[in-house]
Each structure stands twice: as structure tokens, then as C-alpha cells.
Amino acid sequence: MEFAELIKTPRADNVVLHRPFYLAVEGTLCLTGHHLIFSSRRQDNAEELWLLHSNIDSIEKRFVGSLGTIIIKCKDLRIIQLDIPGMEECLNIASSIEALSTLDSVTLMYPFFYRPMFEIVEDGWRCFLPDEEFELLSSVTDEWRLSCINKEFSVCPSYPPVVIVPKSIDDEALRKVAMFRHGSRFPVLSYYHKKNGMVMMRSSQPLTGTNGRRCKEDEKLINATLRPGKRGYIIDTRSLNVAQQARAKGGGFEQEVHYPQWRRIHKCIERFNILQESLIKLVEACNDQSHNMDRWLSKLEASNWLTHVKEILTAACLAAQCIDREGASVLVHGTEGTDSTLQVTSLAQIILDPRCRTIRGFESLVVREWLQAGHPFQQRCAQSAYSNSKQKWEAPVFLLFLDCVWQILRQFPCSFEFNEQFLIMLFEHAYASQFGTFLGNNENERSKLKLPQKTMSLWSWVNRSEELSKFQNPLFEANSLVIWPSVAPQSLQLWEGVFLRWNRPSKFLDEAHEEMINIIKYNKELQAKVNALRRQLAQLQTVDRMQENLRHTQLGIVSSLGSSSVSKLHTVLAEAGTLTSTQLCG
Amino acid sequence: MEFAELIKTATVESVLLSCVGLPAVKGTLCITSHHLLLSSCPGGDSQPGTVELWLLIRNVDAVEKRVQNLGWYQPPRTNGSPRDTRLAGSSGTITLRCKDLKVLQLEIPGMEECLNIASSIEALSSVDSVMMMYPFFYRPQSLKLEEGWNLFPLEQYFQQIASQTSRWRLSDVNRDFTTCPTYPPAVIVPAAVDDDALRKAARFRQGGRFPVLSYYHPKNGTVMLRSSQPLTGPNRKRCREDEMLLGTVLDEGERGFIIDTRSAQAAKQARMTGGGTEPKSSYPRWRRLHRPLERGRPLQESFIKLVEACNDTSINMDRWLSRLESCRWLSHVKAALSTACLAAQCMDREEASVLVHGAEGTDTTLLVTALAQVILDPSCRTLVGFQGLLEREWIEAGHPFHLRCARSAYSHARLKQEAPLFLLFLDCVWQLSRQFPFSLEFGEHLLLTLFDNAYASDYGTFLCNNEKERCLCKVKETTHSLWAWLNQPGEKKKYLNPLYSHNALVIWPSVEPQSIQLWQGLFFRWIRSSQYLDEAWAEIERLVEGNKPPVKESAGNRLSQSLSDPAARTENER
User: Fold this and answer.
1) Chain B residue with minimal CA distance to A286?
2) Which of B23, B526, B534, B313 minimizes the C-alpha distance to A411?
3) Which of residues 306-345 of A touch B (CB under 8 A)?
4) Quick check: B75 pLDDT over 60?
5) pTM of the model
6) What is the pLDDT of residues B252-265, one digit of tens each?
7) A41, A286, A486, B127: which one has the fewest Cβ atoms less than 10 Å from its Cβ?
8) Alpha carbon of residue A530 to chain centroid
9) A292 contacts B533? CB cut-off 8 A
10) Where is the Myotubularin phosphatase domain (chain B) (predicted)?
11) What interface predicted TM-score (ipTM) does this complex get?
């Protein structure tokens, strides 16, 4: 298929662009295969807007006479309005945008066409490999091994080729366990807590069914992670009721009789369309123009978004508590083990592990616990809050995770190396991106699409120092402690940076932020200057001392030797003098 | 009255003090006339104890007592067993809920002691006589009594205006408080109106509060006036002098706005009780706008409900949000900010003068005029300028602090005239500081300190209801001023906003409901540890401090000096 076929009118002049908090600008609108480009021709204030078609969530058109208006609502929640003269142009442009923004085939997406303009210092596709992770682990414990059982994705289609499992369990046993778990997601290591050697594992639900089927290998596998005489916790992210109902469909949960060393705790986290509807309602409330405080608060409440944030954070805190406070190992799962399970395991790691609060550590966490762990990004992020089309598998699971991270970041402003912008950037790229990182639903699909060969990784771009500096938290000071967030409803706030981003003037907040960054940068420069001066001072002092010593020796020698060698010593001294002056110049 | 009479038990040993977020401490509890002290003695009895609690009893809003261990209770024998054995094993818990919203718990061994302590605190905290309050007894060594009382004379404020226009004069018509008991002795009025006319206009306004100048906008010469409602009554009484007073404010052909902080309905009803509004026919050049703001008891109840919701640790997210909504506090914040913006807009954008009043002109009126000035006038956004604004627009303007701040959100006492208008003002200023993080020279800490001091203080600044009462009580002669303490160099530093840079522009806040936030620093201050946020602020402050040019230079100079020294010596030796 050719993109050109879909573009009925590639260009329109005298288009007026309206955005909240900006003056309307007139300019030219162009459509390309992947972008909507608006450029104002004004000399004094040339401006360009590039919008990825895949970022467009919905489009509305309106006509007043022959003037058409298109309202474009984006997946990053921005809303812009374009006034296009000429009814036909307007209709053509609208239908082109509609067609281009709803392309179904992954290989037609922009990442396959994007050619970066920057030099690649470090290929993001080669960062955060499981081997590196395992190397770190094997330096502290030898109870685990790297298994290549899933090399061809033959055992579990949604797992990466290599996984970390207990050393005492062989691949044969793993195959049997896989048959006992939903989607073959057998229990694997998610996190090792160095402080006390406790672990967090994740899996999907066991397929006990109505007959209470059991699997000895499964029992053996998870018991292998327990210390003698110790108990572990299974955190089921469904309510007991839902878990029981799952048995009718072949699923189920670990029964006490077969897993006597494990205590099961049910923590209900919502999933799928309930979350998606919550997002839709929340965004609607945020865009409400009625200026009524009661209405705003009741809509905010009715959206239930903050309730979901609270539930997820609470479950993550529970998992972290079991590990750190109770000294017990934990297994987390819900139904498929690809959504709420990952929210809990990844948040618990942020709470427990200071490394996850650095930029690289967080990237590694996203790669490990979301991308490689098989969170179906393509399905979940196909549409955002404005889409009118029928929902299939969309759910803001990842956005909720980012929101929870933001809540913790807000409560511990000095403990994170990254800032809010970093989280917002990840949200944007999960929904629409020029990079291939979030394409596909799991590693299996990514390798079939040959993403590492054909597209650029988001990490290759982010991890360059120019970009990194935008995402650094100036207040960061490594905090090696576990950080326990407050989950009281009063402590949780709406994430304005995402939800009110386009409908509040952020000029002053941005300025404040910029100023802070400037201050910190300046501070660093001065610090560097002071250090350089100190070094220089120390150097000069040593040279000075050396000369002092030299002079003393010289005097001693002069008095003991005859005058013949004095001239020789003078040359030595002169040499030392030149040395000093060159160093001074340097 | 002697304080000693109210103190039934002055000291109790081994009292356990607990407070959310802090470890419990055991120590000796003492009650003095004005304070509750708890000192622990970590190293045994011989060593001097450390004071763990130093609470102004005036700060106590509610005392709750619970007696435990009733299991020890045995019915008294008929031949009369000694009372002491019966109570020996009992203990009691006193919960002190403070006006600054802090909650403390004291576990006191001995039921009788517990009851005595509770009733002593109750009696001492409800002493209502101003002259018995702590400021009259407080004598810190670092301050002088007269310091800080005359920092912001109205003459000085008038001089600024007089340098730009001659249309205003300083009148001492109220020098002995006979014209208006709630006004200060000096007020700024139109130069064209003489004192006689003022006296007549005063009789036409509730409580004698005739229109006076509140703010002169130097940019375009428009002014903001404030007053109380006119006493038109059911017969639509008029007053030539009042009309003339307002008339002289406007130039030929100019129009002005009257912002009435009541609904049109309420303003109309006020006529039945002798009040009313300025009728169009008698004030043809003034357009009336009604912007109802909550006041009095509903506002106090809103405050109480909000604090209740904040303290409820058992609620889930839905209930929290619906309680936040139903308490309506944020709606009040929004309404106050919107009205202040309207007043500011009339002056700055429409270039029209404004008169603000509600009924008495001592509550919502001041809320609007003070906020509008923070929005319009950069000098009100400095630490000193803000103090001057509070002095002029709240304290001297006769906001009845003593009545409004007698009780806070926990009190079980019957509400009388309490209403958190000043808190609402501080909250609105906080919203401004959040939206314009650079433009206010002071930080949240100042707003919190002002809130604390308005409800219970060592200083006399917020005592009494108006200048007349302050005169009678000799507040300025016999108490210390809060400003004197705040403005000491060491103290002042704590209140500054490290990010401040002068912003000469008008700051227009967003008043969309989505932009208004709950002031967590105040309402969650004692509930949630702010350790990490405080650390972040300390870090910002440290960074800003490190960047100040003088420090930088001197460090650089020192280094370069020590650098040049050894260099010079090497040169010489060669």
C-alpha cells in the first residue's frame, strides 16, 4: 500500500491553528505519510508543529459556511483545532488523517521509516540484556540460574528467550510447570532483595480448574525459593471472589493444602475496560469547562482513577513489606500475569531498590518488568482517552504505573535521579513514538518484526547526554533506604503534569523549573572551578616545598663540596625554576 | 481572678506524651498559667530534664478525656475504704486538640490527676479576658516592647499616594474612635470631602464604616475603596454626603464598580433589617456586581468538616473525595480568588475604580481587598510589604480577630462568632504562591506562622477586634509585636522564598476548579510527615544560597589569594 493513496489533499494554505494558551496562528498545513505538519510563515515568529498520525486519538469536523474546523484529540491528551478554508479540502484532510491515524499494520508505523539525525553512542537494543542482570545477581547468590528454555519462544510465547529460575529446577520440570500456568507463564524471578536474600517472583494463575488439579513440579519450584522453616506470601491481584470464579474457566489459585508453606493474600486491582473507562472519565473531568468546584470534585471522584492508584500502590507496598519487613519471599500473580502483576512487581522494586530510582535503573526496570515480561503494549496503548471506536484490549495499565511512580516521586523528591518529565516522556512514547521500543506485545513479536534491526530504540536517544540533562532531577541525592510511600487517600494527588498539562498555563511553573536547573548548573560549574583551583594550589604548594628542600640540600652540598660543582647545581636549580614556571602557566 | 485558682493539679509524674509521627516520651507534666510543659529526664532524676512539650494553653481548642482500667474498680465498702486504693491502678488519657490543628495525647496515671489536669486545661484555655492572655506576660530578652508597633504607619502609605496625586487626604476624623469604633484613628479619604461630610456619611453606613481608600493603583490612578453596607432600609433612605463622597472618586464621565460580596437576594433582604445596597438611581455612575462569598457560621462549619475529613484515617478514596467536595472549602477558596480577580480586573483592565463591601465590611470585604492587592501590587508580595498589607487591611481595618479566631476546627463549644476568614485569605495567598512560585518573597512557612499566631500567640499583634480595643487594652505598650520577632535577621531567613525574583507585573491566577488545590502544608501538617519535602526545600535553599554573588566572590578571592602567594614566593626565590 502506498501512503500517497490515502492522502487526498497533501497541503492546505491559510489554515489557522488554535491551541489553549497560545494565540491563534495562520500557516500552511501539510500531510505526509506519518506526520501532520503545520508551519506558520510569519517571519518574526516562524513556528512548526509536527504531529505523528499515530498520536491522534480522535478527530472531529465541523462546518460554518465554507470554513471547516477540525478538532484533533491526541493520545498524549492534547487538543488542537485547525480552521481550514474550503469544505472539500477540509473533508479531504479529515478523512486522510483518519485513515493515516488508524493504520492497522505494525510495519507501516513510523518507527520503520524513521532515520535518526543524531549519532548513536550506545545502541539501546543492546542495553539491559538479561545476562547483565543475571551477572549482578550471581555475584550475591548462587541459588538461581539463567534458563534458555524459551529460546524459540516455544514454551511461553509471552516470555523472553531467557529467564531466571531456581537452580534446583531443571528445564524438564519447567516445561511441566508451564503447562500448569495460564499462557504458560511459569513462576520466574522478578527481584532479589540483597538485604535479606528474599525474592519476588511473578507468574500467571495456576490452571487448577474446578477439579482442583495440582502440579508437583509447580509446588516444588516455588518451594525451592523458601528458606527452611520459612513461609512465603502469594499476592493474588484479584479479589477472592474473582479468583474463585476463575476456576470455572480453567484458572484458579494455589490451594492451602498443596502449598502449605504459602499464605495467600488477595488484593483487588482493577483491569481492562474498567481502567480504560476510568481514564476516559478522568480526562473528561479535567477538560470540563463548567468552572464549578463541586462538579469537578465529584467528577474526579466518579472517575475512580485515584482509587486505582491507591489500590496499586497499596498492593506494591504490601509486597515490599512482606519482603523487607517480614523477611518472606513473595509470588505475585493475577490472571494472565501481564498487567496488574507487573504493576505490583515493578512498583515494589522502586520502593525497595535504590537502583531502580536512577535513570538507567528505571529504564532497566521498564525493559525487564514491562517489555521483556510481556506487557502487551500494542494492545493496551492502541487508543487513549478520546477514542470513539469500540474498545478491545485497551487499558492504561502502564500509565497507572507511571502515575504511581509519580506519587512516590512527589513524596520523596530527593530520592529519584529522574524527574516528572522523564515519566511524561515514557507515557508519550508508549502511546505514539518514532522509536520501536514499545511496538509489539512481547519479545516474540518484536523479534519477528525484527525491531532491533529495523527500528531505533528509545534508549539510544534518551541516553545521550543532551537528552538526559532534561530528565535529571536536580535535587537527587542517592538514598539507599527503602522508601515507604503514604497511601492514605489524602496523600495521593492528581498528576497535573499529565492530566492538566494542556489545560493549565504552565509558564510560571516551567520558568521556576528552568531557574532551578540553571541554579544547579551554575552551582556545579562553580564547584568544578573551586576544585580545579584547589588542585592547582595543592600542586603549587608541593612544587614550593620541593624547591625549599632542594635549596637546603644545595646549601649542604655547597658547604661540603668545592665550588667547582656549584655551577652544576645552579643549572639543576634553573631547571627546577623552569619547571615551576611552566606549571604556573599551565 | 488568679490563675492559681484554676490549676487544680500543677504537676504529675510519669506522663506519657504521644503525637502522630513522633515517638512517645515519658516525663513530668507541669501546668503554669499559660503553658503546658512536659519535661523528660533521660538520665535519672538528678539530671536536668529536656523539655519535650511547651504548649501555649491558649492553643488548646478541645480537651477530651478518657479514663481507663475501670476493671480495678471495686464497689466501696460500707465502712468506707480509702478512696486512694480504689483509684490506684487507674489512669486516664487526655487528648488535646489544638487550634493549629495538632493533636496530642497525654496518658496520665491516676484518675483524679487526669480529671484535674483536664479541667485545669479546659478552664485556662477558655479564659476569655484579653488582658489575661499570654502576650501581656511574655517578656523575651531579645526584643524591646515598643519595637515593631509602628513599622507601617498609614502616613507613610499616604505619602506614597500623595506623591502621585493630590486627590486624597489623611483624615483624623476618627482620632478618638467616635465616628467609627472599628476604624483606626487615621483614614485616607477624598480630598474634596471634609470631616463633617464624613461624619454624616458614617451615620449612613453600618457600624459607621464610611468608604475609605484601600488601594491606589499607580499604573492608571484608579482606586479601591471599602466600606460597610449603606443603611438604606425599607424606606430607601439616601445620604447626599455618601453619594458625594463616592461621586468625587470618579472623574467626569467615568464609571465605577461596586462589588457587593453578598448575593442580590441577600442584599435585598438586608433592607428589612435596616441595611441595603446603593440604588442605581442615587448612584448612577456606579455599577453594582454581586459576588456572594461565604461567611460566618457556614464558613466555620466548612473548616470543621474539612479538618474532620483530613483527620479521618479510615476512609477510602471515594469517601475522601466526596467529603472534600461536601465540605466546600475549595469552593470558598475559588470564590474568594475569583472575586478578588474581578476587583483587580476592574481596576487594571477596565481602568475603573472599585468599592467593595458586604454587610459589616469587616470580613469578606477585607478578604477581597487584601487579595486584590496581592494580585495587583508587587510591593505586597515582599515579606515586609505583606506584613504592611496585613496591618493595614486586616488588623487596622478592624477584622475582629478576637471573635473570629476564638475557636478553631476542633472546639466542641457552641459557636459564637468564629469564622476562618483570615485562614481563607492565607489559603488563597498560598494558591497564588503555588501558581507563581517566583513572585512572592515569602514562603509557606510564613503563612503557617501567621495562621498559628492568629489563633494563639505569644505576641499582641492579633489580639482584640479593632484599634479602639487595642488602645483600651494598651496592647502596643504592654505586649510585643509579632513583626518585631519575625523581622529579626535570624528569624526572617526562615520565611523567605529562595526562588523569589521581583516580578513587577500583575499576577492573574487561574481560578479553574482544576487549578485549586488543597493546602496540604496546613491541613496535613501534623498528620503526615513532611520530612522529605522539607529536605527538598532545604536543598533548594542551600543551592540558592551557594549561588549568591558575594559568597562566591569571597570564596574565589580567598582561593586566588592563596594561589598568588606561593607563586610570588617562587618568583622571588629565583
Assistant:
1) B514
2) B534
3) 306-307, 310
4) no
5) 0.81
6) 889 999 999 999 99
7) A41
8) 37
9) no
10) 148-523
11) 0.70
